[in-house]
From TrEMBL:
GO annotation (BP), single: methylation
Stored SUPFAM superfamilies: S-adenosyl-L-methionine-dependent methyltransferases (SSF53335)
GO molecular function terms listed in the Swiss-Prot or TrEMBL record: catechol O-methyltransferase activity
Signal peptide interval: none
EC number: 2.1.1.6
Name this polypeptide is given: Catechol O-methyltransferase
Keywords recorded for this protein, A-Z: Methyltransferase, S-adenosyl-L-methionine, Transferase
PROSITE patterns, per the entry: SAM_OMT_I
Organism encoding this protein: Mycolicibacterium fluoranthenivorans
Enzyme class: transferase
Amino acid sequence: MGLTRRAPFLRWSFLRLAWGARNISRTGQIGDGREAAAAEYVLRESRPGDIDDVLAAIDRFAYEQSFLINVGDEKGALLDAAVQRANPAVALELGTYCGYSALRIARAAPAARVFSVELSAANAEIARRIWAHAGVWDRITCVVGTLGDGGATLDTLGFAPGSVDFVFIDHDKSAYLTDLQSILDRGWLHTGSIVVADNVRLPGAPKYRAFMKQHEGRSWQTVEHHTHAEYQTLLPDLVLESQYLGA
Ligand SMILES: C[S@@+](CC[C@H](N)C(=O)[O-])C[C@H]1O[C@@H](n2cnc3c(N)ncnc32)[C@H](O)[C@@H]1O
C-alpha cells in the first residue's frame, strides 16, 4: 500500500477538509466542488449498470483524486456484512453524501428498498445521478431533509410500524442518538432490526455509544467493530452494529 494511502496527512485533499469542516456541517459539501467532480468521474470512468464498477470508481476517486467522506471500502465491508445479516426488505440511511453507502446497501440486499435522508439538495442530486448510472434509481430514494426538522421528513418517510429492517446512521454526529430516538418513537423498528453507526470514534458520537452500552442486553445488543477512518489505515475508528431486542 502506498504511503499516501496509509497516511492521509500527506494528501492535500485530506488537509483541505480542515478548511471545509464548517462548510460540511452547513452545506454537506467540503466546498471545493469535489463531490460534483466525483459524479463526473464516475459517469465517465465506470460501466453503466455495473454497481461493482461504480463503487470501485468512487473508491478510486477518493484514493487518487480527492478524499471523500464516504464510509469507504474498509468500513464498507463491515456495512455489507451487517446488511446481509439483516437481509432487509426496507433499509433507511441517514446521511447520503454522494450515494456511496446507499449503493453498497442496495448491492448487499438486492431485494431491498433503500431510503436515504440527506440535508443537502445538491448532494441528493449528485447521489441520484450516480444511482441512475449504476442502474438502481428505482430501488433507492433520497429524501431531502432531516429527522430533526419538526416532523416533516419523518412524515414523508412514513414507514409502517415495525417495517424498517436496517438503519445506517452516518450524518451529523450530534444527532445520532436523537434521530435514533425519533425512529424508535415512531415504532419503525422490530425485534431483530439492525442499526449500524459509522464514525463513533472519529469524529465521535459518545452519547450514542454510551446509550448502546447502557442498554446492552436489554433493548440492544451491540458489537463494536474496531476499524479505520475512511480511505487510510492510520486513524482508528469505530463502527457500531446494534441489534434491536425490542422495547
Ligand atoms: C459522512 S457523510 C455520509 C456518507 C455516506 N453515508 C456514504 O458513506 O456514502 C454525511 C452526510 O450527512 C449529511 N447530513 C448532515 N447532517 C444531516 C442531518 N441532520 N440529516 C441528514 N443528513 C445530514 C451531510 O450533508 C453529508 O452529506
